[in-house]
Amino acid sequence: MYFKLRLGLAVYTLHKSFQSFLLQTLPFGLKSKLIMLKIKTPKSGKAKREIEKRAPKLVESGKKTLILQGTKTSNVLNAVLTEIYHLKKDSAVRYTRKNENIRPFESGGETSLEFFSLKTDCSIFVFGSHSKKRPDNLVIGRTYDHHIYDLVEVGVENFKSMESFTYDKKLSPKVGSKPFIAFIGEGFESVDELKHLKEVLLDLLRGEVVENLNLAGLDHAYICTAVSSNRVFFTHCAMRLKKSGTIVPRMELVEVGPSMDLVVRRHRLPNDSVRKEAMKTAKEQPKKKVKNVSQDVIQGKVGKIYVPDQQVGSVALPYKAKGLKRERREAKMKHETNDRAPKKQKENSE
Amino acid sequence: MTGMDTQEHQIDLGHLMAFDPLHHFPSPPTSREELVKECLQKGTVLVQLIADALFNLPSTEDIDGPLVKLPPPMTRLPREKHLPKPKPPTKWELFAKAKGIKNRKKDKIVYDEQTGTWKRRHGYDRVNDDKDIPIIEAKMTDEPGEDPFVKRQAEKKKRVEKHEKNRLQNLKQAAKVGALPSHIQLAATALPITGTQAAPKKASKNELQDIASMAAAATASGGKFDKKLVGEKPEKHKGKYRKFLPVVEGTGIGSQEKQQTEKVLNRLISKNSHEILNVDKAINMYNVKKEKKRKNQRGKDSSTSSKLKPKKQLQKKSLKKGGSSKKGKSK
């Protein structure tokens, strides 16, 4: 890297580390010519809407989940991953290829995950892998700003798939309905890893964040029980609401979905600074002013409705008026006799 | 109102979650079915608790069923993306704030004096369009020979460029803070090549069309049977790329074979082949110069004594011509 100065104009070949230094010492006119920037905007409304969907928002709704696997998977693990995908069908993306270079707990092995998270706009991922040391391994992780936030590694044991349960098919829960989540056991409060797992499971299972909930659409529940200090029994049940005397119906749980034992192996808590930033909540927005509504002392709440002018005469009718048809027919016949000989033979025959 | 601590059960209605921190499993846990049954029992209890709280909330009737407004969740979960940063004020906004300029709402339809109708302010058939001006009166300050309409257009173009530049500067400022609007990206159009400031030249339309036609011929059958699209240019250099001499041709000055062999020989024998210097031409020029000089001298001499001129000139000229030509070709 060298630079030669000629007549006040700097002609140079740079090393990257010198570029910032030179930027400050160069005259202003040259600075702007160094990197010519162009404003790129999406050319179609659809593209613009898609980009805006991915933009950071003040109030966030449900997170999308990315389900993928590593170099080696077992049958059990495949089944687990597909069932998790089915449980979260609308808000999950499933990658079926083997990814060799993803090692969540190693420093270099996270770049692929972050790239996928950026591309699919998913902030929770479930990564399955199988090895002799860690059989049937699931790594559940979350990302903040498409960088790894925290990780929990669990092993799956005693897995029972959805098909193995027999139940009345009418009870089967619909995709996308908000589930009940129940955590049982003192382990969730005393053991660090189980506390972390509880938070991650809540984030994974909760679905969309809604303000208004339709009570008729409640049909399933997840039950997580801390059996011991490192084992959690996880199961998915459909709910049957039975009539009881009061407004509140009586709940009955019927085991439906996958049930498995989760054995916590490793976990990584988030950095303190990142955690602080991620937990920041937006200040309460001032309520948006509702237009055309005002409060009157005498009448109370008064609203204005603007009705546009109705062009009664010029609106196109959906059907052809009978009179119009007759008029056109007569006009046609008149024209025929006056102007030209009939073109088609058919008309003559008529 | 969301945490109901009955028997130390924590209920988070915003998430429809219930947590029982007091349950203690007898160790070692009994058989699997027992475990499952117990879990389901406890689960039912918890779910019932949530449902109790849920159904007691004030509900509104909807088409599908009773609608309930959920309270905000108690457990805080981390966000997935950073909070959106507020946009920094633009240069104009700062200036307007400093001066106290308020933004005035403008109507979409404006009355046009010229036509006497209501026209829109921007867009097709607008109010003060440049092309609607029939006559521009000449001012004393105007230079003759300058087209005022063109001048107006040029000024407008300059203004638009200035606006674009200002917009880019504002966006750059926003990007520095990290508050670039989500649908806008700033892309580098041309990175400087090390050593020069020139941007790489963009291929023109004609160049691209030529290259495209060349590429189209890169098929197994030479592009002969491909259907040409509308607007595609035909190949510039079609057909033969080698020229072969005719088999039968007479010898003589114009014979192509002779020319070809001469060319090759000249190139091989480098003493006589000067790519930069054309020897024949140089010799001719030299001779012509010399002649002219002699002519002038003779002319000067003849102005003093014209009668004593010998007639050697003509002979010498012819000799020279023959000599020079021989000189050029003999070697």
UniProtKB/TrEMBL annotation, chain A:
<feature type="compositionally biased region" description="Basic and acidic residues">
    <location>
        <begin position="327"/>
        <end position="350"/>
    </location>
</feature>
<feature type="region of interest" description="Disordered">
    <location>
        <begin position="322"/>
        <end position="350"/>
    </location>
</feature>
<protein>
    <recommendedName>
        <fullName>Ribosome production factor 2 homolog</fullName>
    </recommendedName>
</protein>
<dbReference type="InterPro" id="IPR007109">
    <property type="entry name" value="Brix"/>
</dbReference>
<dbReference type="InterPro" id="IPR039770">
    <property type="entry name" value="Rpf2"/>
</dbReference>
<keyword id="KW-0539">Nucleus</keyword>
<comment type="similarity">
    <text>Belongs to the RPF2 family.</text>
</comment>
<dbReference type="Pfam" id="PF04427">
    <property type="entry name" value="Brix"/>
</dbReference>
<feature type="domain" description="Brix">
    <location>
        <begin position="63"/>
        <end position="273"/>
    </location>
</feature>
TrEMBL record, chain B:
<comment type="similarity">
    <text>Belongs to the RRS1 family.</text>
</comment>
<dbReference type="InterPro" id="IPR007023">
    <property type="entry name" value="Ribosom_reg"/>
</dbReference>
<keyword id="KW-0539">Nucleus</keyword>
<dbReference type="GO" id="GO:0042273">
    <property type="term" value="P:ribosomal large subunit biogenesis"/>
</dbReference>
<dbReference type="Pfam" id="PF04939">
    <property type="entry name" value="RRS1"/>
</dbReference>
<feature type="region of interest" description="Disordered">
    <location>
        <begin position="287"/>
        <end position="331"/>
    </location>
</feature>
<dbReference type="GO" id="GO:0030687">
    <property type="term" value="C:preribosome, large subunit precursor"/>
</dbReference>
<protein>
    <recommendedName>
        <fullName>Ribosome biogenesis regulatory protein</fullName>
    </recommendedName>
</protein>
<comment type="function">
    <text>Involved in ribosomal large subunit assembly.</text>
</comment>
<feature type="compositionally biased region" description="Basic residues">
    <location>
        <begin position="308"/>
        <end position="331"/>
    </location>
</feature>
<dbReference type="GO" id="GO:0005730">
    <property type="term" value="C:nucleolus"/>
</dbReference>
<keyword id="KW-0690">Ribosome biogenesis</keyword>
<dbReference type="GO" id="GO:0000447">
    <property type="term" value="P:endonucleolytic cleavage in ITS1 to separate SSU-rRNA from 5.8S rRNA and LSU-rRNA from tricistronic rRNA transcript (SSU-rRNA, 5.8S rRNA, LSU-rRNA)"/>
</dbReference>
